[in-house]
UniProtKB/TrEMBL annotation, chain A:
GO molecular function, one term: oxidoreductase activity, acting on the CH-OH group of donors, NAD or NADP as acceptor
Record-linked SMART domains: PKS_KR (SM00822)
Protein name in UniProt: Short-chain dehydrogenase
The Ketoreductase domain, residue ranges: 15-194
Family label: Belongs to the short-chain dehydrogenases/reductases (SDR) family.
GO biological process, one term: fatty acid elongation
UniProt-listed Gene3D superfamilies: NAD(P)-binding Rossmann-like Domain
SUPFAM superfamilies assigned: NAD(P)-binding Rossmann-fold domains
Lineage of the organism: Bacteria, Bacillati, Actinomycetota, Actinomycetes, Micromonosporales
Superkingdom of the source species: Bacteria
Annotated Pfam families: adh_short
UniProtKB/TrEMBL annotation, chain B:
Gene3D superfamilies: ACP-like (1.10.1200.10)
SUPFAM superfamilies: ACP-like
Domain of life: Bacteria
Domain spans labelled Carrier: 3-81
Protein name: Acyl carrier protein
PROSITE patterns listed in its UniProt record: CARRIER
InterPro entries, A to Z: ACP-like_sf, PP-bd_ACP
Native organism: Micromonospora craterilacus
Length: 252, 83
C-alpha cells in the first residue's frame, strides 16, 4: 500500500528527543548539545550520573532523566510514557546505549557475548519499535539516529561480538529507512575510536601509530560527532538510511 | 577443579612452540617477541590448559597486553586458574 503524501511531506526537525545511554561520554555530550540547542530531551542510562542530573536541573522544563537499563523493556516503556507526559510526544530517538568489549572471541564468556548482543542490538531494536509505534499511532513524523561504530565496517581484534552488533544496527538502519517510507528518517553515525577509549587499552606507541595513519592527525572526540547527530535530528537534508563515518578518514 | 602446575603449563607451552618448529627457552625472563610466541599462540595454550582442566578460562585483552616474557605467560595462566 503506497502513500503518495509520504513523498511530498517533509519530516520536521525533532523537538522531543529520547537519548539512551545519556549519562556519560558521547551520550552526555549529545544530551548537552540538544538541550543547548533548545530541544526537549528525555535521557536515560543505567545510572544517572551527577553530570546528567546537573544538566536536568539546569533545564527543568525541557528535560526528563531517569535510571533505566536499556535491556529492561518494561522500564524503558514506562520511561517513555512518563517522558511524553512531561515533555510531549517523542519525535526523535538517539540509540546510543551500548556496552563495549575488549577480549578475543575465543576467550569471551558465552554470557558476555549474550549480554553484548542483548544490550547493543536487541535493546535498541526494541526501543526503536516502541518509539516508532508511538510516533505512527500519534500521526507523527520523526527521526532516528543510531550510534554505531567504525567496527561495523572494519575488522578489529578483541571486538568480534561488539562489531557484529554494530553491523547489525547499520543494516537495521537501512531496512528501517526503507520500511518507514520517509515518514521517519533513520540514519546511523559511526564514530572512529575515541581518544579516551583508545588510551585506556593501548600504549603510547600504538596510539601514536594510529594518529599517524589518520589524515586529520587526531583521534575522534565526542564533540566532533555531536554536530552530525544534531544535523540528522534537526536539519532538512534528505539524508536517509545512511551510515555517516566520523573518523578523520582513518578507515579509508 | 583440576589445576595445572606452572611446570605443566610450561610443558604445554613448549609443545605449542615445538609444533611451529620453535624452542621454548629455559629462562623465564625470555622475551616473547624473541621466542616468537604470539597472541594466538597464547590463545592456543590457554585452550590446551582448558582441555586439561575442563574449565573455561575467559579473560579480557588488557591483561594479555601486559604479558611480555615466558614467565608472564606462566604466571598469568596459573593465576587465571585460581579465579
Amino acid at each position: 500500500m503506497s502513500d503518495p503524501a509520504a513523498h511530498t511531506q517533509l519530516v520536521p526537525p525533532s523537538s522531543v528527543v529520547l537519548v539512551s545511554g545519556g549519562s556519560r561520554g558521547l551520550g552526555l555530550a549529545i544530551v548537552t548539545d540538544l538541550l543547548e540547542s533548545g530541544v526537549k530531551v528525555a535521557a536515560f542510562a543505567r545510572t544517572v550520573t551527577p553530570e546528567l542530573a546537573k544538566l536536568a536541573d539546569a533545564h527543568p522544563d525541557r528535560s526528563h532523566v531517569g535510571s533505566v537499563d536499556v535491556t529492561d523493556l518494561a522500564a524503558a516503556q514506562a520511561f517513555v510514557r512518563a517522558a511524553e507526559e512531561r515533555l510531549g510526544p517523542i519525535d526523535g530517538v538517539v540509540n546510543n546505549a551500548a556496552v563495549g568489549q575488549d577480549s578475543l572471541h575465543v576467550h569471551t564468556a558465552t554470557a558476555d557475548i549474550a549480554r553484548i548482543i542483548e544490550t547493543n542490538l536487541t535493546a535498541p531494536l526494541q526501543l526503536t519499535r516502541l518509539t516508532v509505534r508511538r510516533m505512527l499511532a500519534q500521526g507523527l513524523r520523526g527521526r532516528i539516529v543510531n550510534i554505531t561504530s567504525i567496527c561495523a565496517q572494519r575488522g578489529f581484534p578483541g571486538l568480534v561480538a561488539y562489531s557484529a552488533t554494530k553491523g547489525g544496527m547499520d543494516a537495521a538502519t537501512r531496512s528501517l529507512a526503507r520500511e518507514l517510507g520517509g515518514r521517519v528518517l533513520v540514519n546511523a553515525v559511526a564514530p572512529g575510536f575515541f581518544a579516551s577509549e583508545m588510551s585506556a587499552v593501548l600504549g603510547q606507541t600504538q596510539l601514536d601509530q594510529i594518529v599517524r595513519r589518520t589524515p586529520t592527525g587526531h583521534l575522534t572526540e565526542p564533540e566532533e560527532v555531536v554536530p552530525v547527530v544534531r544535523m540528522l535530528l534537526r536539519e532538512q537534508t534528505n539524508i536517509n538510511g545512511q551510515v555517516i563515518v566520523v573518523d578523520g578518514a582513518a578507515s579509508i | 577443579m583440576k589445576e595445572l602446575s606452572r611446570a605443566q603449563i610450561r610443558d604445554l607451552m613448549g609443545e605449542v612452540l615445538k609444533n611451529q618448529g620453535k624452542v621454548l627457552p629455559d629462562d623465564d625472563a625470555a622475551d616473547l617477541r624473541e621466542v616468537g610466541f604470539r597472541s594466538l599462540d597464547f590463545s592456543e595454550l590457554a585452550l590446551r590448559v582448558e582441555d586439561e582442566t575442563g574449565e573455561e578460562l575467559n579473560f579480557d585483552a588488557p591483561g594479555l597486553r601486559r604479558i611480555a616474557t615466558v614467565g608472564d605467560v606462566l604466571d598469568f595462566l596459573v593465576e587465571l586458574q585460581r579465579q
